[in-house]
Protein: Dehydratase
Organism: Chryseobacterium taiwanense
Amino acid sequence: MENSNTQESTFNPDDFAIVPLRSFDELVVGEVFRAPSRTLTDAHASAFQTVSCDNHPIHYDVEYAKRFGHEAPVVHGLQVLAFTAPGATLLPHYFGNIFIAFLELSCNFLKEVHSGDTLYSSLTITDLTPKDNQGIVTTKVTVYNQKSELVLEGQHKYLLKR
């Protein structure tokens, strides 16, 4: 057993990386990065409503939602989009200090999401564009619900050092 003095002198915070760091050139088109599934609750909707200041009754009033043809209040679209945050997956952990910027995102909302739905999101590398000493990583983002329905799809782009 090592004594505590030896442990202190050999400690290196870099040894606590979740995954090994990779360079832009080590990334591969087709790689998939999944986030843990999450079941949305009314508490999530309330928290997002507080942060977004979006107080439209479609998001919290059952009778209002039903009057307009919805089975239940609809989860904020931006909250569903937040499920595509790269940090919910291991992808940015591979980037380490080569990450420069999150350049852009786009999405299409395809199905309603309601409290009680379980969401499954993933990011798939679809393109790697080298540009001198930098590179752009493009990912397809998807979010499915517990019924295997695609509720959101879109794209992210990140700028990395090479």
